[in-house]
Amino acid sequence: MSLFSCLLLWTLWAACSHGAMDECIDESGRPQRCMPEFVNAAFNVTVVATNTCGSPPEEYCLQTGVTGVTKSCHICDARDPRNYHGAGFLTDYNTQPDTTWWQSQTMLAGIQYPNSINLTLHLGKAFDITYVRLKFHTSRPESFAIYKRTSEDGPWIPYQYYSGSCEKTYSKINRGFIRTGEDEQQALCTDEFSDISPLSGGNVAFSTLEGRPSKYNFDNSPVLQDWVTATDIRVTLNRLNTFGDEVFNDPKVLKSYYYAISDFAVGGRCKCNGHASECVKNERSKLVCNCKHNTEGPDCNVCKRFYNDRPWRRATTDNANECLSCNCNGKSAECYFDHELYRATGHGGHCRNCADNTDGPNCERCLDNYYRGSSGQRCLSCSCNPVGSLSTQCDNTGRCSCKPGVMGDKCDRCQPGYHTLTAAGCRPCSCNPAGSTQECDFHTGRCQCKENVDGFNCDRCKLGYFNLDPQNPQGCTPCFCFQHSTVCESADGYSIHKVTSTFDRDEEGWKGQQRDSSIVPVQWSPTTREISLISEDYFPIYFVAPEKFLGNQLLSYGQNLTLNFRIQHRDARLSAEDVVLEGAGHRVAVPLIAQDNSYPGEETQTFVFRLHETTDYAWKPNLKHADFQKLLLITVTLGSLLHDSSGAGYLDSVSLVTAHRGSGTPARWVERCTCPQGYVGQHCGQCDLGYRRSQPELGSFSSCEPCNCNGHSDTCDPVTGFCNCQHYTAGKSCERCKDGFYGDPMVGSPSDCKPCPCPAGATCAVVPRTKEVVCTNCPAGTTGKRCELCDDGFFGDPLGENGPIRACRACSCNNNIDPNAVGNCNRESGECLKCIYNTAGVFCDRCKEGFYGNALAANVTDKCKPCSCSPYGTVDKKTTCSQVTGLCQCLPNVINRDCSACEPGFYNLQSGKGCERCNCNPIGSTNGQCDIFSGQCECQPGVTGPHCDRCEINFFGFSPSGCKPCDCDPEGSESAQCKDDGHCQCRPGFVGARCDMCEENYFYNRSTPGCQQCPNCYITVFHAVLIMICHTTYSTFFYGCLHRHKADADQIEKIAKDANDTSTKAYNMLKKALDGENKTSSDIDELNRKYVLDIPFYATFLSCQYSVICF
């Protein structure tokens, strides 16, 4: 089907339905779809063009399509109505003979791609667009596009593209189509109307539904319904159609190319979604639908305020889809559509602002926190207390659901036993039953406490009380603490104990006593095991308790005294003082029937009396609790009265509750006090260290006050107040310095009392006028103002002026002083200064220099004697010696006590350098001694020299026996001196040891003194000579041995000399050895003489060679 046939069908459908759709209600009064008439929505609507010719005036030429033909050119001038072609001519009414058109500037002015021109048509309201038609006064463009907007401020949406170059210009496929299921809101492109022919009068008509697969199901296609909706239409002219001759830029040619449109038509209906048959101008001259079917809005696009029972929908051929009113049960005129409600119930009208406190989608129920009253019409407020209610919603009777502990129809008050209405309900009263008397205040929660109890919950004792006890009507027991503290607590380690009398064996110490204190015996019945008293007049008589019920009964305070008692006659008269307690100067009494006790009778009854001062217990007179406790502390009387005339009273048993230390049921009423400063003890009954009783006569009741020790002690006797004085003070309050010290202790500083500047603790005093400190009782041996001096005959440093203090002591001079002399010793050091009897030393305990002996000897003659040291024999010529032994200090080799002699073998004492060794030759001297002055040794015969170490002249043979005379023959010897071997020096021709013989072949001539040579006797005596030589050689052998022995003797002598052994015994031993050697030498000489003479004996030896070795 062609575009024009489709357009014709759509137009015919619109025209045929025009008459049938005028009314929105059918003949039977049912709503039906209705539509405004089909119109040209663009007629006389202003089009906004972005380019129009005529300003300034310009020439344009008509396109003929034939080359070379002269073109017909005209002027477009906005100032000339005849030649003006503005945008208003696009939508005016025109006929074929009288055509008007809009025209753009020519290509000469730059009108060509990529420069575009927009023609924008504002419809003023949404329309359902059927078609858009353009009639061109020139040739149709090569490319242009149609756009729409669905709202006046919405984006421009492509509607249709026309182009001879779809892909190049719009990136669209030429003559594309939409398949079923594809997006039906996409714009298509076609080249069907893009040819340059015709040069004028060509039409382009765009049908909005052409090519859309769902167009035959339009009522059920929201996509197409939205696709045909437009509030604005824009035509964008992108590219002119040309013959291609514009490339030569011929102005005539360029002036012939321009856009010109004679008609711009938009066919459609005012969009009212089937709920209006016409559109009208509103008070602001804005086009709107005249809505029916309970709809409203510019396009009848919403339900009216009270018509929201189902969702708004477009009207269709089958269903007008009118908006239905909400069901609010007459309680509201407002509602809104509730999707969830509609899905759940099929009715979406949700009422709002329901009247009469109603609520619900249809105002069908009461508001939350309301209930329907008995009238059933109005809803009444539950008025549930928001704090006390579990919910603000009540039941049908208006009763609220309360939180725990809350009560009342509105849950606005606490139940009994609860208090303080909170978000969690009422809190249970937390009253401690031991300390409270009733429930708490339901507003504040504060409990009603017993007399001695405090705290919000009555859970603690008041200050000055302790032991919160449910059995105690006052709740807590007052602290006793001897009235020194108001802070106490129950003491640990105490258990309940009872002091009892059961009279099982005897009266147990009970006695009777009259008012005048006279004693009346009690009767004990072994049968009934009770004691009794008989009254014979109207004067009262009492049972008086024994010791175990008396004394310190403080631990019974607040406990019960129980009596099992009966009387003989029931009509016995009672008094106000039936039971009496006395102690500590107080006396209280109570009637027998007090404290809820019954009247006594003939049967044994139990009477219980609480020992407490509270008026509830009727003890008279009324005492303060401290006085009542004091009474129990020193109980002297506990009595029960009997005053029936001519009657009797019988006491079956007595029990007093108390406490004692040990295991068992704890006695919590026993106190342990927290003592204030200055007090200690369980009951603060003692004074702490550093405190004393201000009134000792009051005992533990006395207050404690700090010890008055003037700052010189932290402690004192707690009873007497005597201070334990420090800082060298004394007195009860440390008000004076103790002996040996002085100062003013009342200043109160540790240095108040200073030691007396006196030794050995001597006392001192201060001279008032001069304030000088003077010692008053110097120790023995001292003197001076401060005992700073030692008496004559004493020494020390009593004030320590030169070091540590040293007491004066008697000088110790060992009786070596004159006791009648003054200044015998130094008073500070004790050094003895006047020693006698040749003594010296600090204590005259030694001999003075130059003396020796026992300085401490009792006998004067046995004391010190002169040393008498030799000045030559002592070191440095000192005259001193050992003071004990008397030995002088001798120089070397000096002997004797007084160094007056040389040692044996030494001499020259007078040198003053010590004695020199004699060095006497042990062989040549007789005894090794020498002259003590010259040093000359005593020599053996023939020996000489200071040391006797050589033979005298003309002597030889140095030996222990001395030297022998040479005895040289004066005629035959050259000299009287012989050689060491004793041989003399012979003159020529003489031979022999003494040169007393003539030489071989010589003879002695008496006529001519001397020996003369023999003339011819040599051969004769030859053999005799040989024998003599042999003997001589043998003698030489023995002579050599002699010299060897002599060398040994010299060595022995040297050893003896080195050892300084000068004893006579050693010398004699040496001498004996040397004498032996001399004897050996004499024996050898004798052998020589013997064998020399025995020539024939040795003749045989001369003919042989032999050697002699001396071992």
Automatic annotation (TrEMBL):
GO cellular component, as recorded: basement membrane
The keyword Coiled coil belongs to this UniProt entry's keyword annotation: yes
Protein name: Laminin, gamma 1
Compartmental location: Secreted, Extracellular space, Extracellular matrix, Basement membrane
S-S bonds: 382-394, 402-411, 449-458, 725-734, 835-844, 890-899, 918-930, 920-937, 939-948, 966-978, 986-995
Main location as per UniProt: secreted
Domain Laminin N-terminal residue range list: 30-269
Signal peptide: 1-19
Oligomeric form and interacting partners: Laminin is a complex glycoprotein, consisting of three different polypeptide chains (alpha, beta, gamma), which are bound to each other by disulfide bonds into a cross-shaped molecule comprising one long and three short arms with globules at each end.
One GO BP annotation of this record: axon guidance
Pfam families, sorted: EGF_laminin, EGF_LMN_ATRN, Laminin_B, Laminin_N
Keyword RNA-binding annotated: no
UniProt cross-references to CDD domains, sorted A to Z: EGF_Lam
